[in-house]
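Last lecture ended with a question: if I hand you only a sequence, what can you say about the shape of the protein? Today we answer it with a concrete record. The protein is non-specific protein-tyrosine kinase. Below, first the input exactly as provided, then the predicted structure, then a couple of comments.
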Amino acid sequence: MIPGKENLERSGSTQTEKEGAFALFDFEHFLRRVVKNWYWFVLMAMLGYGISWVYSKYYAQRIYASNLSLSISNNTASYFTPNQSINFIWGQNGNQDGIYLKKMLLSRSHNEYLVKQLDLYVNYTTKGLIKQTYLDKYDSPIFLEIDRSHLQQVNYSITLIPRGGDRYEVVLPDEGETTSLYSFVTENFSNVSHYARPANKVISVNEWYVSPNLKFKLVKNPQPSQIKFDNIIFSLSTVNQTVNSLVSTIGVDFDKEINTIMIITKSGFNLNGTVNFLNTSVDELQKKRLIDRNTVDKNTENYLFDNLAKIRKKLDSSATLLNHMKITEGLYDIKDRDEKSLQRIKDLETKKAVIITKINSLNNIKNTLASQNLDRMISMNAAGIEDGSFNATVSELKALYLKRRELALIYTPNSEPMREINRLINEARGNSTGSLKNYYTNYLNELSKIDHQIAGESADLVTYPEKERRYLDVERGYNMIEATYNSLLTKQNETQIRVATNKSDITVIDNAKNLGQGPIAPDVKKTKYTIIGGLLLLPLLILGLSEAMDNRVRNIKELLQATKIPLLGVVGKNTHENNLTVLDQPRSSISEAFRGIRANLRFLHKENDKSKVILVTSSVGGEGKTYVSINIASVLGLSGKKTILLGMDLRKPKIFGDFKIDNKYGISNYLTGEVKMEEIINKTRIDDLDVATSGPIPPNPSELLMSQRNIEFIEELKNHYDFIIIDSPPVGLVADSFELMKYADASIYVVRHEYTEKYMLKMITEKYHKHEVQNLGLVYNDYQSQQGYGYGYGYGYGYGYGYFDEDKNYREPTLIKIRNKLRKLFGNT
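The predicted structure:
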């Protein structure tokens, strides 16, 4: 049975739209190409490794990070840190102090203070042959100290080259001078007159370098660095640039288990720089927090001191009056007075004195808010305020006032930003005033209630004589003033104790340290794998694109599934010098392949006594149509069958060259009536094989091939030969072969491995399945397997067994060797 034909018979009718449809991508062939081009992948991997090594060593700028952890106590009681105002939940617990501190750490004012305090606007680097490395200030042997009152050029490289001792040569860029210079006082740019490039100059430590665009001096590092540098490069940045870049490198997070523990992270190009910044930042924050905590208590202490002085005068005056009445009136004691009622009146008047004190404190707070000088704010406890939202409002007001002062330096009073900040201030002030009104209302209600109770308790005093009643009034006044004085004195003592024992509510758990931490970025390993992977993908992509764009037939199984045309046989690559492989190399594997095709031909045509006409064609020239025709005719002639080979490709004659026959007269001459049949038939060295060449190329080959004379010619040959092999024109170029197929008993369609385009097979496939072409079979030509001479479809002839002539030069592939050894080892033969 012809390979592939049984599938066709089993399937019955097929869907024509699927016939001739090949896969868009041959993954199996793609893998083979990848394996075949393994050296490109090795080369790309080596190149990628080299590039990544150079990048890592000379170009990758390491980024380091250090962290500091601190604890925040929750006993802050000042308006600077709102306790309950911010609706923030972390782990279901409030952490308002932490959020406030986070805002402070990331605030512009705090970081601007650090920038100016630490001179962070001065950048330190050093440059080798290739790479420029960032330095920490304290890694440098010298510091750069600028004159802030002098205009300076920012983003301008200043290179210092050691010249021995404490002397350095100042080398400036060859170009880049600008007339727009920066003032570190006003933090604005100013334009100056044009000036020439400042000359390079050698200066000593503590000597000022002065030029139109720079003024600085070098200060020796008190702790000399052990590292020797060939050069130190300085550059200045504006305060705004430095603050913005600084804030972007700070991260603040909270411990997931204890939300009062804050973890602050700083990243940068130098590890020591990040450590110094974090420790300094938190140290300054601790100082500021302590100052903030003491500010309110100091204000409260001063407020209480002033009020105590005033109350003391009233108390002294009241005591004098009381003593006068005792002396002049002789009233040291009143007989039969109601001590219980008087004690209740005394307690009520003491409460009244406390409320009046709170109201006075409220008045002070209200006046302070109205004055916008919040640094004079007293403690909220003095006014009995326990509302965290009010504290937050006051804190917000202070921040808004500071913001308005900053904006006033940039914008006009009627600009949109100023109007917006004023709106926010009025809104915050309204919120604070509303809270104070609530306290006023509550205190006045309490005061009215106490006065009413006192009036009720005083009703019995009207029964006393006039003199005794006046004495009791004076005594009650003295007791009330005394109660107020004692209340203020108690508050003063509490405040003084708090000032004496106050400490920052920030406790550092772990300071930032240089522990030799490795860089956090770039990820050198990931970069290496990315570079290597990207370069490995390059040949893979090229092979994939070429595979997708390559539409040639290279898979026998796919060919049969797409065309559903029976396969007569597979012919290997011809390495012989001419097309007479069967005649010159009868023991070759290719000759055996043609014998197999000869055996399979009987399945295409009916067995009868008449001669068999076999037409050989292909899609285009170069696919081996003539080669297949010659060798099929040869194996038929050698088998004892009387055979003639007709060269009917009149447009491109070929056969005569291989058989060394004169092509002066041929089929074209016979069809035009110039010669007789006997004159164009040539004998070969095979007794049973004759050849009729095509002859000279005629002007009308199609008309000659389709002529009645040609049909009669073929019919006449049937009377003399068992097989008539027709080497016809390619069907992809002309339609001659389709007409000749009508008179053929069987047709062979030659497909060349990795040459025939897939789309070329669509026409012959459609005609075959529409039954326009009968008894058609495929020959797969020029196939060279990577696994020996087997064709991957169950019929091959196998190299390496001493059967064919080619076996003497055959070298078994490594994979086949391994496979065979494994089979032998496990007894699988």
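Comments.
1. The two ends are 26 Å apart (CA to CA).
2. Confidence is low (pLDDT under 50) at residues 9-17, 75-94, 787-803.
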